[in-house]
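Quick one, tokens below:
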């Protein structure tokens, strides 16, 4: 089973960073998320309850992130991947977290992680 449910370009504002200016003003973060999930049951039933609900994932991440104030994107990415695995039944998560305009001469910086199984 190699089914993937994905969310691309999910923008969520967060207090995150190591510099004083980052600790007081929320900054935009951009997430690209791939979640390994067996879609066959949902495809057969045509019922949202059987699917990995990407709207629910997005809302949960936004709510979670609003309550955090991590210094490192590495920490936030790890916590978000764990949340998806434990709360939504994904078998694996590939998560890219980008922090646009963090460096003057770069479009974005960030991390990309993979947790769980993709085989």
């Amino acid at each position: 089973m190699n089914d993937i449910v994905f969310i691309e370009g999910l923008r969520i504002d967060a207090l995150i960073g190591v510099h004083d200016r980052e600790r007081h003003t929320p900054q935009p973060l951009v997430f690209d998320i791939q979640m390994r999930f067996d879609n066959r049951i949902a495809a057969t039933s045509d019922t949202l309850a059987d699917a990995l609900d990407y709207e629910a994932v997005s809302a949960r991440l936004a709510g979670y992130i609003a309550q955090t104030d991590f210094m490192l994107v590495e920490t936030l990415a790890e916590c978000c991947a764990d949340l998806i695995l434990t709360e939504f039944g994904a078998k694996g998560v590939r998560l890219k977290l980008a922090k646009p305009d963090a460096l003057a001469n770069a479009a974005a910086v960030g991390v990309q992680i993979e947790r769980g199984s993709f085989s």
